[in-house]
Amino acid sequence: MAVDNPSTGEIIARVPSMGAEETNKAIEHAAQAFTSWRKTSPSERAYILRQWYQLILNAKASLAHIMSCEQGKPLTEASAEIEYAASYVLWFAEEAMRVQGEVLSSANNQQRLIVTRAPVGVCAAITPWNFPAAMITRKVAPALASGCTMVVKPAQQTPLTALALGELANQAGIPPGVLQIITGEATAIGGAMTANSIVKKLSFTGSTKIGSLLMRQCANDVKKLSLELGGNAPFIVFDKGDVAHAVAELMKAKFRNAGQTCISPNRVYVQKTVKEPFTRALVDAVSKLKLGDGLDPKTTIGPLIDEAAVQKVEAHIANAQTLGARVLCGGKRLESQRNWFEPTILDGVATNAQCIEEETFGPLVPLVIFDTEEEVIALANNTPFGLAAYLFSDDIHQVERVVNEIESGMIGINTGVISAANAPFGGVKASGLGREGAHIGIEEYLEMKYQCYGHK
Ligand code: ADP
After folding, report:
1. How far is the C-alpha of 183 from the C-alpha of 366, rounded, in Å?
2. CA 311 to CA 106: how far, in whole Å?
3. How many CB atoms lie within 10 A of CB 102?
4. Taking 90 as the threshold, does the pLDDT of residue 447 lie above it?
5. CA 143 to centroid of chain Cα atoms
6. 447 - beta bridge partners?
7. What distance in Å separates the CA atoms of residue 374 and residue 355, rounded to the nearest whole number?
8. What is the rounded CA–CA span in Å between residue 410 and residue 414?
9. Beta strands in 45-110 (DSSP E)
């Protein structure tokens, strides 16, 4: 299977194209490894994970280079992602030591009630291309910390970062079979992972369409599921907010990975009274972005992942224009380079435009003007999704009112940077099931075992 550089189109590597047979072999191997891995002590697992963490950090520069070549993001962002990915490994190395049970009060004196926690078993993970390292460590680290074993299918576009992390896992002493990485055909591998009854849990990050398909496939033997799916994040700027600060945070949240993140602000709602200064400052900031190849140190925004991604941004812009929107800057791909798309701002976007109703996953900021708090809450919630939301206001009462009403798993208040290993990442509504990171991130890989002891 060829792996290309989205910036140049050059084929940079070939990886094995595996299918159902190899996936089932890996699952059997993972089941074998589980018999001994689940019996290791939490401190042994923590020690090995810390070794992996250190090796990832030591290899930061080369991992970032690999990632930038296969995914396109600028080197500084790739390097930051490696640190972020490593932070999950350290976090869950420590959480391994904090898995605890409970002794419950009993309704009578004849019984003693105890709850312990046991690893779920063999797990499978399917990950996307937008964060080729972090989406893997977020799943693998809590799985391994809890005593589970895992088979991972990285996205076809970005298998190299995954394989490099796997090699470092070997060097860290993670035993054979505990972590395996399968590259190849998505439908065949995903089909085998979901059909095989040895697999007790699937963790998936990707589109809602595929997440819901995998959920159906997992229904036969009722596998546990964690799903991190699509978002449609509103970014709300109230006139009681700091406009300059809101612009600075929007730049970080929106243009990271050229807008290809599931928590990227997809709809920007600006209160009418601050529209002028906000728009002026935003156009100014966007015009300073430097679109280019990820390996060029001057680049601040890289290419999109592929032609389909470019076409989606083009279609969203064209659709908004037919509904009356105006391009304030950008608006097109660079003729000379395949997947390079100019950072774009659209003004006067209709609330029923495609770019408001669907995730664009590209460097597009659609501006929608609103009058009242009530109006913007209704607009923000008018979506099947509920992953992230952002709001800017210095009025604490307003913040509290809006936070209470917004249907979203995560809310940034006066900040555009919300992800961290110690925080619960995940969504409500069609944005998914479960959370990654925080203490709850390891709970997702543990089953409770309630024991009721009777006295004779
Ligand atoms: P994106 O649009 O971001 O590529 P996808 O949901 O299509 O989102 O992809 C996320 C992950 O799901 C990738 O690893 C991809 O290979 C995988 N995938 C896509 N289709 C299937 C499928 N039918 N079964 C299992 N995995 C799939």
Report:
1. 37
2. 62
3. 11
4. yes
5. 17
6. 118
7. 22
8. 13
9. 102-104
Q: Long-range contacts for 270-275 (Cβ within 8 Å, ≥24 apart)?
A: 270/237, 270/367, 270/368, 270/369, 270/370, 271/237, 271/238, 271/239, 271/369, 271/370, 271/371, 271/376, 272/239, 272/369, 272/370, 272/371, 273/239, 274/237, 274/238, 274/239, 274/241, 274/243, 275/367, 275/369
* Helix axes of 60-71 and 75-95: crossing angle, nearest 10 degrees: 120
Ligand 1: does its nearest atom lie under 6 Å from the Cβ of 11?
A: no
Question: Ligand 1 pocket test: which of 126, 135, 215, 360 has the largest number of ligand atoms within 8 Å of its C-beta?
Answer: 126
Separate counts of helices (H) and strands (E) for the chain: 15, 20
Q: Position 334: which residue type?
A: L
Residue nearest to atom 13 of ligand 1 (CA): 155
The rounded distance, in Å, linking the Cα atoms of 27 and 18 is 13
Confidence of residue 336 (pLDDT cuts 50, 70, 90): confident
Q: Which atom of ligand 1 is nearest to the CA of 209?
A: 6
* 127 CA → ligand 1 middle, Å: 7
Q: Ligand 1 centroid to 128 CA: how many Å?
A: 7
Residue 186 Cβ < 6 Å to ligand 1: yes
Which atom of ligand 1 is the closest one to the Cα of 189? 25
- Catalytic positions, please? 228
Q: What is the ipTM of this complex?
A: 0.98
pTM above 0.80, yes or no: yes
Using DSSP's 3-state secondary structure scheme, residue 324 falls into coil
- For atom 2 of ligand 1, which residue has the closest CA? 207
Q: What is the biggest distance separating any 2 CA atoms in the chain, rounded to whole angstroms?
A: 82
Backbone conformation region of residue 451, classed left if phi is above 0, alpha if psi is from -120 to 50, else beta: beta
Q: Which domains does the chain have, with CATH numbers?
A: 2-229+431-454 (3.40.605.10), 233-413 (3.40.309.10)
Distance 134 CA to ligand 1 centre (A): 16
How far does residue 207's CA lie from ligand 1's centre (Å)?
Answer: 7
Which residue's CA is the closest to the ligand 1 atom numbered 18?
A: 186
E strand segments, 132-197: 149-153, 179-181
Q: Are 251 and 268 in contact (CB under 8 A)?
A: no
**pLDDT tens sequence across 81-138:** 999 999 999 999 999 999 999 999 998 889 999 999 999 999 999 999 999 999 999 9
Instruction: Give the C-alpha distances (Å, rounded to integers) separating 431 from 220, 366, 388, 427.
Output: 22, 21, 9, 5
